[in-house]
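Work Package 3 (structural annotation) set out to generate three-dimensional models for the target panel prioritized at the project kickoff. During this period the team completed the workflow that converts sequence records into discrete structure tokens, so that structures can be stored uniformly alongside our sequence database. As a representative example, we reproduce one entry of 264 residues exactly as it appears in the project archive.
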Amino acid sequence: MPQHLDASIDVFRQRRSQLDSLDCEQTDGGGRASAGFDAQDGQAYLIRISRRVGSVAGPFRLTSAAVQPAARPPGPRLPAAGARNSVNRTLNPSDAYSVRLRQGVTYRVNLAVSRCANLEIYRPGTRSFSGGSRVETLSCGGRSDLLLDLRTPGTFDLMLLSERGGRLRCVCQGKGDLRLRTRLSRGRYFAAVRAQQQSRAGYRLTRVTRAITATRISVNGSSRATVAPGAVARLGRAGGREPFPQGSTSSSRSAFWAWRRFSA
């Protein structure tokens, strides 16, 4: 049976004798991984490909490409027949569209994808998707989607660590608000906030609650009911399930780090 290389790709920014970690990703079940970072003119970067523990040695192919900037509001008008496009977490992370809605009218929004993608709806007047007021989020259906939202004026790293301290994701060297989105398996994790460049500032870290993936609506206590015109009907949620039970959390602080542990 042939064996294949399982690897990690790490991106570092060289700053004098120091290396600042910008991104770290591991290959998936198909042996693919992608990492992205904002490059600055005249700055030196290092990319490391390393074999994961327990993996056999093997060849690999590394490619690079320019990345399209993230979408900004409001975006072009959404055609009446809808839009067809593609996104990629590294090369083309997001698309945005705007649509004019009328008050009092019910609208249905449909997202058809072959792989995981999320759709977010924002209020009128939104100037930034990272700090805007989100009305609704349609998940790709993964029952372990996680979104960490960090609000701060400082220069911080936002990292997701495994229970043993291994780094899973990092939004590093960011100034101002940061967002980290990923998919998790059941288990315990750490969210770490680390100050960079002797930054001192307050922050607010929010773990966005995952939406219920299945639910049943009851009418007058029954799953089926006939309601006469003008009659009062009592609606309720007859049952539902969350992707994972809500886990416990704990937090701790040090001179340069702030930790928050949670269970998925």
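The radius of gyration is 22 Å.
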